[in-house]
Write a structure and sequence with these properties.
The protein is an alpha/beta fold. The protein is built from four helices and eight strands. The mean pLDDT is 83.
Length: 172
């Protein structure tokens, strides 16, 4: 099934009058549809409805395939410019010792320097949920250790059996 084009072109335009704009016409203004089509034919270009909701609809005389190509090119450029955010996770237990903490701290530093966000969490198993304060202290200690290269996006928050903190890299 062929998809319907997003713009009405040439004979598909139904308005009795259209407002012509563009670089390749002598005078912009309101024309009858037949007159606008005649001008487009003379220039061997297409009459394209740009703004159908206007009164009268705004049309442009252009090469439609070239117009579509340029639109796709613009969308591709905008997509390339958008930033993809990577979130890296680091898991702790409530009883994490100093050596393991430092090991995971180095990983968090590396992730932040690469431009990724860090989602650090303490996972509570069984009765270890009793040590909520220890988990919070651990995450705050991580945040203060990373404060020179990252900013805390969300303070430690308990969600089910996990206490989570988000740290994003500092902007240069």
């Amino acid at each position: 099934m062929e998809q319907e084009p997003e713009h009405k072109i040439n004979r598909k335009i139904r308005a009795p009058q259209v407002r012509l704009v563009g670089d390749n016409i002598e005078s912009t203004g309101v024309y009858s549809l037949s007159e606008a089509l005649r001008i487009a034919d003379e220039l061997e270009l297409d009459l394209v409805e740009i703004s159908p909701k206007a009164d009268p609809p705004v049309c442009k005389i252009i090469d439609y395939s070239k117009f579509l190509y340029q639109q796709k090119k613009k969308q591709k450029e905008m997509k390339a410019k958008s930033v993809k955010v990577v979130v890296k996770e680091i898991r702790f237990g409530p009883q994490t010792d100093e050596h393991d903490f430092n090991f995971k701290l180095k990983h968090a530093e590396k992730f932040l320097k690469e431009g990724a966000k860090v989602k650090a969490f303490v996972f509570f198993k069984g009765r270890s949920i009793l040590f909520k304060e220890q988990g919070e202290i651990l995450l705050l200690k991580l945040a203060t250790s990373l404060e020179d290269i990252g900013t805390v996006e969300q303070l430690p928050k308990l969600e089910g059996k996990r206490m989570i903190i988000y740290i994003s890299p500092k902007r240069k």
